[in-house]
What we know:
Structural class: alpha/beta
Number of strands: 8
Number of helices: 10
Shape: globular
Strand order of the largest sheet: 3-2-1-4-5-6-7-8
Largest sheet: 8 strands, mixed
Low-confidence stretches: 209-218
Amino acid sequence: MTEQTMAGRTVLVTGASDGIGAEAARVLAAQGATVHVTGRSADKLRPVAEAVGTEPLVADFSRLDDVRHLAKLVAERVGSLDLLLNNAGGTFSPAQRTHDGHEPNLQVNHLAPFLLTHLLRPSLAAASGSLVVNTSSIANLLGRVVLDDLDYERRRAIEFPAYGTGKLMNILFTRGITQRWADDAIRSVAVHPGPVGSSFGRDSFLVGLLYRTPLKRFATITVADGAAPLVALAHRGPDPEIDGRYFSRFKIDGRENRQAHDQGLIDGLWERSEALVGLP
Length: 280
């Protein structure tokens, strides 16, 4: 790939303070894209923004008002958006509700990117061919979407299955975009980047325990390797062949939860998520 393969394309990367988001942002900028970056840590995000040549956009996805403000700033900065990398996420203790009162794995992994993508739809449509990449996970296999109890108000939330459910929702959301926004030439794809040795799990005691031990070397891949599938999909752009598909790293149609193609869940999750984030 030459340094100019992304020239002329405008990109927003969420979860870009560190890890695969920061790496993907740097690579795409080096290849000619105009890259905007957002993350919750101003201190970590600042050097990434400097490296890609744009001002940092600080937003905490556990606060939906931050997401709304972020969308407003992005819309003011860009005339059109060719690529949205919805990469922000993680695994969180369900015991701590977000500022908005939601179970954190639900809000940070699904509701916040759902809201952001909706608010940026005009910018994506203005590109006359754009791509939304949702960073999912093989953990989607452990998920279970219950439409009438998305926020775990009537059942106990267990951390890693709740995380897996959020990652399953990323795939369902991807298919919703494909079905509903085709007239705007907005394509979408979900991807499992691999078990990356980054700061993933820093908000989780259980996952963080693995990432703080020597076992991390055997259980994870490098940040650069984890970012590579995101970069590869960015290069493909709004390719109809990948629209609505789920990649396991570079392999199309990776292993999915049996709920991932349930049309009732695709529609129901979309409608309930609109209500939860206050979209009309």
